[in-house]
Write a structure and sequence with these properties.
CATH class: Mainly Beta
Number of strands: 17
Helix content: under 10%
Strand content: over 45%
Shape: globular
Order of helices and strands: HEEEEEHEEEEEEEEEEEE
Radius of gyration: 21 Å
Structural class: mainly beta
Number of domains: 1
Largest sheet: 16 strands, antiparallel, barrel
Strand order of the largest sheet: 1-2-3-4-5-6-7-8-9-10-11-12-13-14-15-16
């Protein structure tokens, strides 16, 4: 799969040089220290802490229910080496309540470089998770717990009418003769604005692509090599309102595709497709979303298993066709300058078997930061 990796890396560079959320806004439970080019030489300390309780009451053939309760913390220091380059170093700790040891202890380092006015490059720990703006069927929001830190390379572009996020997340590195395969994920998330009006209407085209590769040429492992991809083509009509209870409405339709491009087909389905319709209402303190899912032989390596046509439990049970209604309700409140509280309730009604699944959660995110001092590296211009 050497050729595949070259294609992905080339596409990252090309898009980087070339260059509203389709699901519920979950940014109140995720933190990234955004940067617009602060004063050179500034050194600061930042603490990111997330306390979470997520209860998934699932009881079907595609996914088992579970409860996630615990916290993650990420203390770090940030240093503006130049007006266009910021360095960050720290550690990410994840612990579930009832477990004596940390489930994750990950060193965190990133270099955030502003290449041009609208183009950023991040290497190391990425601006990931919900910040990618991927829809739930292809990118599960609960990856935040199972993959808390994405690490690799990322380009971010924000122009007048286009937004682009493209990244390579290296999940598992291998050395020669390792008995485990390498794993990495390539993603691309874009939105192009076709029309904006003074009355608050916006028509846009979201496009999303994700590829998950498992393999490697230098290891000795028993797991089969595989490369699974998802493509998403969307159309979004949004309207913002001034005043009143309703702040905005989004009406989206997505056409999704699944393809197994492995040398040898791994699962029952080598390709599939789906349609996803969503209506989202922003009421000022959160959002309400209604969705309808219609799929045929659909799989997504990074998506929520609730939308799959093949079970993630043993990859044996399958249901070729899936139709489902889902609803989501969120409430968000900024309780302090550096503290955000969010609540979420979600339901999924499977029309094929007339069965309801639901989940709910509470999240408290704190992100205080403290300026330490300003000092420039030796040899810098005054």
């Amino acid at each position: 799969m050497c050729c595949f990796k070259k294609i992905l890396l080339t596409s990252i560079v090309v898009l980087g040089c070339f260059t509203g959320y389709g699901q519920m806004d979950r940014t109140a439970r995720y933190s990234y220290a955004d940067w617009s080019g602060e004063t050179e030489g500034n050194l600061s300390f930042r603490f990111e802490g997330l306390s979470f309780f997520q209860n998934d009451e699932y009881n079907d053939d595609f996914i088992e229910g579970y409860t996630l309760i615990g916290y993650s913390v990420q203390p770090s220091v940030l240093y503006n080496l130049t007006p266009k380059l910021r360095l960050k170093a720290g550690v990410h700790l994840l612990q579930y309540h009832g477990v004596s040891d940390f489930s994750e202890l990950i060193p965190v380092y990133s270099a955030h470089l502003k290449l041009f006015k609208n183009l950023d490059l991040i290497m190391g720990a990425l601006k990931g998770d919900v910040q990618h703006r991927m829809i739930e069927p292809v990118f599960n929001p609960e990856n935040q717990y199972t993959r808390p830190v994405e690490q690799g390379i990322q380009f971010l572009f924000k122009g007048k009418n286009v937004w682009v996020d493209t990244w390579l997340d290296w999940d598992q590195f291998i050395f020669s003769d390792d008995t485990i395969p390498e794993r990495f994920t390539y993603g691309l998330s874009t939105e192009f604005d076709l029309l904006k009006t003074t009355s608050g209407f916006k028509l846009s085209l979201p496009f999303q692509f994700i590829a998950r590769h498992t393999g490697g040429q230098i290891g000795h492992y028993s797991e089969r090599q595989k490369t699974l991809t998802n493509s998403v083509f969307g159309l979004r009509l949004a309207r913002d309102f001034k005043g009143g209870i309703v702040k905005g409405i989004d009406l989206d339709v997505y056409s999704l595709f699944y393809n197994d491009i492995s040398d040898d087909i791994v699962y029952y389905y080598s390709n599939g497709n789906a349609l996803y319709y969503t209506l989202k209402v922003d009421y000022g303190h959160g959002e309400l979303m209604l969705g309808y899912w219609d799929a045929d032989k659909f799989m997504a390596p990074k998506g929520s298993a609730l939308f799959h046509s093949l079970t993630s439990l043993d990859y044996i049970f399958y249901r070729k066709s899936r139709q489902m209604f889902n609803t989501k309700f969120s409430y968000q409140k900024k309780i302090a300058k550096y503290a955000d509280l969010s609540l979420m309730f979600e339901s999924y009604y499977d029309l094929n078997i007339s069965k309801m699944e639901y989940s709910y959660g509470v999240h408290l995110l704190v992100t205080p930061s403290y300026f330490i001092r300003n000092f420039k590296p030796s040899g810098s211009q005054k």
